[in-house]
């Protein structure tokens, strides 16, 4: 089992613009995106220089019926809210390139 302290967990539901805050969205509407996958989050985090690992088989407790999976990120001492915004902006850049 890994130590929990330096790591943060990011669920795709945090970024979903179609969800309400009570259903798990953590970003303001203007930064939220549609159809974010764990691979999108991991790719964006790696582009920003974080160590990211995708863990399959885990389900977000507020929406347990959704697709499983989460991304574990090495925080490097930064706050989760700051990293969340950075990753959302990077995902937006990646989606606009495709």
Task: Tell me what you see in this structure.
The protein has a single domain, classed as Phenylalanyl-tRNA Synthetase, Chain B, domain 1 (2-Layer Sandwich), CATH 3.30.56.30. 29% of the residues lie in helices and 13% in strands. Strands 1-3-2 form a 3-stranded antiparallel beta sheet, with helices on one face. With 98 residues, the chain is an alpha+beta fold.
Principal-axes geometry comes out as globular
Amount of helix: 25-40%
Q: If you consult CATH, what is the topology?
A: Phenylalanyl-tRNA Synthetase, Chain B, domain 1
Category from helices, strands and their pairing: alpha+beta
**Distance between the first and last residues' Cα:** 37 Å
| Biggest sheet features | 3 strands, antiparallel
Q: Give the total of beta strands.
A: 3
DSSP summary: helix tally: 2
Tell me the Rg in angstroms.
Answer: 13 Å
Under CATH, the homologous superfamily reads: Signal recognition particle, SRP19-like subunit
- The overall pLDDT average reads 88
Order of helices and strands: EHEEH
Classified by CATH, the class is Alpha Beta
Tell me the strand order in the biggest sheet: 1-3-2
**Low-confidence runs of at least 5 consecutive residues:** none
Number of structurally distinct domains: 1
Helices and strands in order, then pairings?
Layout: E1 7-10, H1 38-47, E2 52-55, E3 70-74, H2 80-97
Antiparallel strand pairs: 1-3, 2-3
Helix pairs in contact: 1-2
In a nutshell, what does this entry contain?
This protein is α+β, with helices and mostly antiparallel strands and 98 residues long. The protein has helices at residues 38-47, 80-97, and strands at residues 7-10, 52-55, 70-74.
